[in-house]
Amino acid sequence: MTLSRRQLIQAASAAVLPLPALSQTHVPHRFEPQAGPWRGFEMTMDIAVADQQGVTRLWLPLPDVETDYQRSLGHSWSGNASEMRVVADAPRGVRMLYAEFPASVKAPTLQLVSRLQTRSRAVDWSKPIRASEDPAVLRANLAPTELIPVDGIVRKTALTATQGASTDLDKTRAIYSWLLANAHREPKVRGCGTGDVRTMLETGNLGGKCADLNAVFVGLCRAVGVPARDVYGLRLVPSAFGYRELGANPTGLKGAQHCRAEVFLKQYGWVAMDPADVLKVMRQETQEWIKDPAHPLVAPVNQGLFGGWEGNWVAYNTAHDLRLPGSAGKASLPFLMYPQGENASGRFDELAPDSFRYAISAKELAPA
Fold first, then answer.
1. Where does the chain hold its CATH 3.10.620.30 domain(s)?
2. Phi/psi of residue 223, each to 5°?
3. Nearby residues of 215 by Cβ (< 8 Å), 6 or more positions away
C-alpha cells in the first residue's frame, strides 16, 4: 500500500509526540523565578466615561510600592478634569490619582502613565537571617479585616491545617498545602472575587479567584500568628516560562488584575507566596482540570510560588477596608485593584471595563 504525503506527515507527527501532548498546546515544566536584573515598564490607563451624569469623580490606583522587587520612576497624567491630584487613604497609606469633572464636561477623559521597574523574587531557604520589621506593621498584618476575620471558623480551620506544625515556616507550608488540597479556582467568579473568607469557610465553597483564595491563605496564616498580607496588582506581560495563565497581553490588560500574598517569617523576612496561581494553573492551563499539585505541569509552579514570584507583574498596594477620599459613598472598599468612578448615577462597575470605558496597556522599556 502506498501512503499519501498527508498520511506520511500524520504518521510521523504521531510517532514524535506522546499522546498526552497532542491535547495540549504546550507543556512547560520549568518555573524558576529568581531575583535578578530590573525590568522597566511604562503602564498606561485610559478612561473615557460614556454615561456622564452630574459631577464625575475617578480614582486610579498608583503602583507606588517601593520594595526590593519594585520601584517607581514617576507618573504623569492628562485629561479634561477641573482637578487632578494624588490623594491617599491616610490610615492605610494607599496612594491614588483623583480626578473630578464638573457637570459641564460631557465627555470626561483621563490618562495616567506610570513608569516603574520590577524584578522577580525568590527566597533562598538555605540562608536564614535575623529578620526585623516595625512591630506596628506586624500587628497590622495579624489583625482581622471586614472580610478576613481571624477567630471562629477561620481560627478553627487554621489550627486543623497546621496541626503538628511548630515553626512559622512549618505553619505557612501546612496552610499553603491545605489550600491546594481543599480549594479550587472557579472561572465563573466575577473579577478577582471579593475575599469573603468567613462565608467561604462556613459554606464549604472554597472555589474562587485570586482575591478569594489568597485571602483565605492570609486569614489562616494570621489566625495562627503568622503575619500575612494580600498584595494587589496587575499582570503586565507574558510569563518567561511559557505558562499562558501566569502572564498577560500587554496591548490590552483587561482582566489582568491579580492579587498575590506575602508572609513574614522570623528567619527570612517578607516572603512571596501565591497559592491562587497554582490553583489557576491546575484549573485553566490546559483543557484538563488537574487535581494533583504534584502533576508534572503544576509541580514547578507549586514549588516556585512558595517563596517567589515572577517580575512580570506590578503591585499597587496591600490595603484592606479603604475609603476613597472625596467619595459620596460611605462604604469602604475591600481592596483597591481596579479603577473606581462615580457620578450622579452612582458608583461605576469596575468589573465592566467596556461599560466603565477604561483600558490598560503596558510596554517594556529598553534597559537603561
1. 121-315
2. -65, -20
3. 147, 148, 193, 195, 196, 197, 230, 259
C-alpha 233: how far from chain center: 5
Q: What is the Cα–Cα distance from 64 to 73, expressed in whole angstroms?
A: 9
The CATH number of 39-118+318-365 is: 2.60.40.2250
Identify which of 146, 143, 217 has the alpha carbon closest to the alpha carbon of residue 182.
217
CA torsion 283→289→294→296, rounded to 10°? -100
Distance CA 251, CA 361 (A): 5
Residues 6+ apart with CB under 8 A from 231: 65, 259, 260, 261, 262, 315, 317, 318
Report the C-alpha gap between 220 and 10 in whole angstroms.
Answer: 52
Alpha carbons within 13 A on the beta-carbon side of 215 = 29
Tens-level pLDDT at each residue, the chain (368 residues): 344 444 433 433 333 333 333 234 455 579 999 999 999 999 999 999 988 899 999 999 999 989 999 999 999 999 999 999 999 987 888 999 999 999 999 999 999 999 999 999 999 999 999 999 999 999 999 999 999 999 999 999 999 999 999 999 999 999 999 999 999 999 999 999 999 999 999 999 999 999 999 999 999 999 999 999 999 999 999 999 999 999 999 999 999 999 999 999 999 999 999 999 999 999 999 999 999 999 999 999 999 999 999 999 999 999 999 999 999 887 789 999 999 999 999 999 999 999 899 999 999 998 86
Amino acid at 289: W
Sheet holding 346-347, edge to edge: 83-89, 94-101, 56-61, 340-343, 346-347
Torsion of CA 162, 163, 166, 167, to 10 degrees: -10
The burial class, CB within 10 Å (0-12 / 13-18 / 19+), for 235 is buried
- Rounded Cα distance, 306 and 227, in Å: 16
Give the CATH class of 121-315. alpha beta
